[in-house]
Design a protein that fits this description.
This protein is of the alpha+beta class and 291 residues long. The chain has one domain: Cytochrome P450 (Cytochrome p450, Orthogonal Bundle). Helix content is 49%, strand content 12%. The strands form 4 sheets. It has a 3-stranded antiparallel β-sheet with strand order 1-9-6. The chain has a two-stranded antiparallel ribbon with strand order 2-5. Strands 3-4 form a two-stranded antiparallel ribbon. The longest helix has 34 residues.
């Protein structure tokens, strides 16, 4: 990465790089791969201006057309069967869809999975980098990276609201729910509940020295509704953050306002990250000392 990067765009790009070959096999359509990369950069960042939104909409339409063509080709190829080992996410989506599901619908399901992977990974990494770097004031992080990632997922969960249909009549908190009612739970509010968390408004990675002492903690939902990729997502974000922070000084510019931008996800406000290898600073300090 360059020594100066703009976030959260850089987080989205890194998330895509880490998962690109799983999302679409390297032997897949070059045009489709290019469109996926462009959608990762543009589509996931929710452009603010009208002309940017128009370009993003056009890009999504091109991706949908290319995906539908690829789905049609793979379904007609005898090598792509339900019994065959999937080579990428697209094969997996095609494999679980019955024949009566139309090609455009399969393409839409793939796009949903694509955005559910790249966006949350990129934003979670951005929150970890932002909050950890602000707290360390330009010095190397003094906590294990895993603690920073866990605390970022608590302090600023990307999925700020989770909704599920009620499977049968029940009562919660004195309120009656009928079958099919939509019940919404906010991980953000649960993670900032003073009855369960000490100083919940503070970003404190060291609270994870005893992770079993904290409840409720639901950045990836909970129970039978837990995200199937939760463990993989946490590991990817932790490994990416470890790589970024290893032997490096990080300095954030323009990230003082850590209030999330809330749409269908809680995303960090734009900030710039300066990262300098510790050996570079050591060499500079040595040169200054000799002078």
């Amino acid at each position: 990465m360059p020594s100066v990067t703009r976030w959260p765009a850089a987080g989205i790009e890194l998330a895509y790089r880490c998962t690109a070959d799983v999302l679409l096999h390297p032997d897949g359509s070059p045009r489709l791969r290019q469109l996926l990369e462009r959608n990762a950069r543009v589509g996931a960042l929710r452009p603010a201006r009208m002309e940017q939104r128009a370009r993003a909409q056009l890009l999504r339409a091109k991706l949908s057309t290319a995906l539908t063509e690829q789905v049609r080709e793979r379904r007609s190829d005898s090598r792509h069967t339900a019994e065959a080992e999937p080579r990428d996410l697209l094969d997996a989506v095609i494999g679980v869809c019955p024949d009566e599901v139309t090609d455009p619908t399969v393409a839409q399901l793939y796009v949903l999975m694509f955005r559910s992977i790249v966006g949350p990974l990129g934003y979670s990494l951005a929150w970890s980098v932002l909050l950890g770097s602000l707290q360390s004031s330009g010095s190397p992080w003094s906590w294990p990276v895993d603690w920073v990632v866990r605390e970022a997922l608590r302090h600023r969960p990307v999925s700020w609201m989770v909704s599920r249909p009620v499977p049968f009549p029940t009562e919660l908190g004195g309120i009656a729910f009928q079958t099919g009612d939509l019940l919404s739970v906010s991980p953000y509010l649960l993670h900032h509940d003073e009855q369960h968390w000490t100083r919940p408004a503070a970003f404190q990675p060291d609270r994870w020295a005893q992770p079993s002492a904290h409840r409720p903690y639901v950045p990836f939902s909970f129970g039978p509704f837990t995200c199937a990729g939760a463990a993989v997502a946490h590991e990817l974000v932790t490994e990416a953050a470890t790589t970024l922070t290893g032997n490096t000084y990080l300095r954030v510019v323009g990230g003082g306002d850590t209030r999330p931008i809330v749409t269908n996800a809680a995303t960090p406000r734009p900030f710039t990250l300066h990262h300098t290898p510790t050996k570079t600073l050591t060499a500079l300090d040595g040169a200054a000392g000799r002078r």
